[in-house]
Each structure stands twice: as structure tokens, then as C-alpha cells.
Design goal:
Blueprint: H1 18-70, H2 75-83, E1 88-92, E2 98-99, H3 102-111, E3 121-128, E4 131-139, E5 145-151, H4 156-203, H5 217-267, H6 274-301, E6 312-315, H7 316-333, E7 337-341, E8 348-351, H8 353-370, E9 376-383, E10 387-394, H9 412-417, H10 428-438, E11 442-447, E12 453-460
Parallel strand pairs: 7-9
Antiparallel strand pairs: 1-2, 1-5, 3-4, 4-5, 6-8, 9-10, 10-12, 11-12
Helix pairs in contact: 1-4, 4-5, 5-6, 6-10, 7-8, 8-10
């Protein structure tokens, strides 16, 4: 048995309820969506800020280049004005020598200011000490060039506002998700809780409970399945009760007979030659009781792993000859004609001959009981090479069309035809079906050409 760390059975661990799981799932989804939206927003803001900064810096570079080319303002003055705006200026002379602060010089060189020629503009950037620097360069009329350098503009304040907005959106999203999860869980859990209550009631023996069919489609399907199960259980238990009642009645009849004759013997009411007849009657009733008890035990053992089969190679043609010897005399005693249809050669199968004989005897007894005097009972054997068909047919009244598919259910035919015709205990056909199944074969019931019922056992042949 699986145990948890505390030593308790794994099945006894308390599981999270549906509303907790749905709420947690909603919170996770909301958090992921908010984080994804935040990352995308940050990326978009950074790109937009950089583009805006570059556009402004390009305009300033155009103005500075025009002023320096026209010598309208001295370079030191321009440098001073730009420095107040956080912009560094790098000047390249006609000879290629560059002047400016060290950091701006590195950025300008990496961006390609040294290769800038007349009539072209430089739009570049460089990473210096982990900082992105934007570079806008312009050629001057004297053959030199000038470049403006500044950091990509996304200030700490703007960054804090952005992070704050993302966290706010995350909090709102998780709050909405929690509320939606709670409402959804309550809507889903209500019909499921009703379904669980009905299932618990059914487990305690209630068969009058049904699940209301409302809620989502999947929940309705579960309710329909549970209602169908309740109906099937009710029908099955009703049949079981009828079966037990019929078996009790059948057992009580020979028991009453045995008890009555035993009391007669004990009281000395029966003496002389009558004692022999009474003894024989008691013997027959005891054998009848023993047969019914044996059938009940076999029926109960069919599903067990220790149900024994003695398998061997059996010639069904010879097997049918042996069965014919027994049932010809019994049919003659009942005034019934026995017919045998068999192929001329052997038909070999691998089976348990004792259990197969139990099947044939059960079917033949059922046929003789249902067949009136003068009508036939047929034992037939056919083979198509791969399979052998062993068939028992009778000329009795047969079954109603809808009863053939229920013929092998315990007690069904007994309850349908009791008082209408001679019936057994309701055990025999169920036992026959179970035996044939354990032997690896199949059995079917259908109308017979003789007017009654035909039961066909199909077994796989050897070779």
C-alpha cells in the first residue's frame, strides 16, 4: 500500500477542492498574461523612447552642422550649450583628428565617424561600459565632421512609472482572475456536489435518487451516466431478488418433500413395502437438491481464478455419440423423438470434456423440459474447418423474440414463463453461458427450425 511521509495511506490525503484549483489556475494565467504584457510594454516603451531621442538628436545635429559650417557660433559655445542638455560633441578635423571627451570619442569612433564623407549622415550607436550611446554625425563644408552623442533616453523616473504600471496591471488582473475563478468554481461545483451526493446515496443502497440534469454539458453527461447506472443497478438488484426468491422456492419444494417423508418414517406412519418407495423418493429429491446446490456453486466459482479446467483433445463426433446414449432413453421416457445430426468423420477440439458434457446436459435437460410429447429434440454437430458448432434444438414453444438476447441472464426466463410452461430454477442457462465462456467458446440463442429454441456452442477446432 502506498504511504505518504506521515505514514497515512496515499488515498487518504486531502485533495484541494475544485474552486481552489480553478482560482489558482486563474491567478496563474492572469499573472502570466500581466507579466507578458509588461515585458512587451517595456520593450515598446524603450524602443519608442530611443526613436524619439534619436529623432531629436538628428535634428540637433543638422542645426549644429549648419551653424559650424557657416561659422555662426564658436565650437566651444556649441559644446557648452549641448553639454547642458546631456549631449556631448565630437569634432573631426579635415585631417581626421577627433576632439571630444573620452567616452563620446569612443562611441563616435565605433559608430564610424572617421569614415563619414561629405553629403552623407551618420546614424549609429555604440555600447560603452554597458550604456547605449546614440551617435548622429554630419559632414562639414571644410571637409571635417561633427557628431552628437548622448545616452538613450529612458530615465529612472520613467522606468519606475513603467514598472509601477505593470505591477498595478498585474494586481488588477489577479484580482479579477480570483473573482472570476471563485464564481466559475461555484457554478461548476454546485452540480458536481449534487452528483457526488447522489453517488454517496447510491453507495448506501438508495436507488430512488437521480441527478438533476443542469450545468455544463460535461457535468450533464456525468449526471446522465450516473442516472443510467442507478437504473441498471435497480433492474439488476430486482432480478437478483427475483432469482433468489425463485431459487429459494425451488430449494424449499424438495426440502419439504424430504422433511415430510422423514417425519412419516420417524412417526412410524410408513412401514412395510412403502418404506422402499419413500426412500427412493427421498433419494430423488436429495439428488435434485444436490444438483441445484452444485449448479449454484459452479455459477459462483466461474469468475474465480481457481476454477479448474482439465483441457485435452476431444473428438466431438464421439462425444456426441456418448451424449446420445444417455439422452435417447430420457427422451423416450418423455415421449420425445431424439434426432442426431453429425458429420461422418472426427471433429477435434481442445476443451474440457467434463465441463462440455455439463453444457450439453444442461441444454438437453432444458430442451426436454420445454418440449411436449411427440415433438423432436435435436443434437447437431457441424464443422467448417476452423470452427465447430455444437447445437441443441427443440420443438417446444420457443421464446418471445425479445427474450433470446436475455436467455443467459440469471432468473430472467424463469420470471417470464413461470406458471406458463415448465421452467427450471433460472440457473442452468446462466451456468451454461459461463462454462462456454471459460472454455473459450461462444454460445447464442435463436429460434429453431423445429419451432422451439436453438442453442449453438461454437468452439475453435484443432488444425
Amino acid at each position: 500500500m502506498n504511504m505518504n511521509v506521515a505514514g497515512e495511506p496515499a488515498a487518504g490525503r486531502r485533495r484541494a477542492s475544485l474552486w481552489v484549483r480553478i482560482t489558482a489556475l486563474g491567478l496563474v494565467v492572469a499573472a502570466v498574461m500581466a507579466l507578458v504584457a509588461g515585458v512587451v510594454s517595456v520593450r515598446l516603451v524603450i524602443v519608442a523612447a530611443r526613436d524619439a531621442t534619436r529623432e531629436t538628436l538628428a535634428d540637433q545635429a543638422d542645426v549644429v552642422a549648419a551653424q559650424l559650417s557657416a561659422v555662426r557660433v564658436a565650437a566651444p559655445r556649441v559644446t557648452q550649450i549641448l553639454s547642458g542638455q546631456g549631449i556631448s560633441m565630437v569634432r573631426r578635423g579635415p585631417g581626421g583628428r577627433m576632439v571630444g571627451d573620452q567616452r563620446a570619442l569612443q562611441a563616435a569612433r565605433r559608430a564610424g565617424l572617421g569614415r563619414l564623407t561629405a553629403g552623407r549622415a551618420l546614424h549609429g550607436s555604440a555600447v560603452i561600459d554597458g550604456t547605449v550611446l546614440l551617435v548622429e554625425g554630419r559632414a562639414l563644408d571644410d571637409g571635417g565632421a561633427v557628431a552628437l552623442v548622448r545616452e538613450s533616453e529612458h530615465s529612472k523616473a520613467a522606468w519606475r512609472r513603467l514598472v509601477g504600471n505593470v505591477l498595478f496591471a498585474l494586481a488588477v488582473g489577479m484580482g479579477v482572475a480570483a473573482l472570476a475563478g471563485l464564481l466559475l468554481a461555484r457554478l461548476l461545483a454546485r452540480p458536481l456536489r449534487r452528483t457526488a451526493e447522489v453517488a454517496v446515496g447510491m453507495s448506501h443502497g438508495r436507488r430512488d435518487l437521480r441527478v438533476p440534469l443542469d450545468g455544463p454539458r460535461e457535468v450533464v453527461e456525468v449526471g446522465e451516466s450516473l442516472n443510467a447506472l442507478a437504473d441498471a443497478l435497480a433492474r439488476s438488484e430486482a432480478r437478483q431478488r427475483e432469482f433468489l426468491l425463485s431459487v429459494s422456492h425451488e430449494l424449499r419444494t424438495p426440502l419439504t418433500s424430504v422433511r415430510g417423508f422423514a417425519e412419516s418414517l420417524a412417526d412410524g406412519v410408513v412401514d412395510g413395502d412403502e418404506v422402499v418407495d419413500v426412500g427412493r423418493t427421498m433419494q430423488r429429491e436429495a439428488e435434485r437438491l444436490d444438483g441445484m446446490v452444485s449448479d449454484l456453486l459452479d455459477l459462483a466459482r466461474l469468475g474465480a481464478d481457481d476454477f479448474r479446467l482439465n483441457l485435452g483433445e476431444v473428438d466431438l463426433t464421439g462425444f456426441l455419440v456418448e451424449a446420445e446414449r444417455v439422452w435417447r432413453s430420457r427422451c423416450a421416457a418423455a415421449g420425445i423423438e431424439l434426432r442426431v445430426e453429425s458429420p461422418p468423420g472426427p471433429v477435434w477440439v481442445r476443451t474440457d470434456p467434463g465441463r462440455l458434457r455439463q453444457v450439453v446436459d444442461g441444454l438437453a435437460a432444458n430442451a426436454v423440459r420445454a418440449t411436449p410429447a411427440g415433438a423432436p429434440v435435436v443434437l447437431a454437430l457441424r464443422s467448417n474447418g476452423a470452427f465447430a458448432e455444437l447445437q441443441v434444438r427443440d420443438g417446444g414453444p420457443g421464446l418471445a423474440e425479445e427474450d433470446y438476447r436475455h436467455a443467459f441472464e440469471k432468473g430472467v426466463l424463469h420470471s417470464r414463463y413461470q406458471g406458463v410452461r415448465p421452467v427450471g430454477t433460472g440457473i442452468g442457462l446462466a451456468l451454461v453461458h459461463g462454462l462456454v465462456t471459460r472454455l473459450g467458446g461462444t454460445i447464442t440463442a435463436m429460434p429453431a427450425p423445429e419451432g422451439g429454441a436453438a442453442f449453438t456452442v461454437v468452439l475453435k477446432t484443432l488444425g
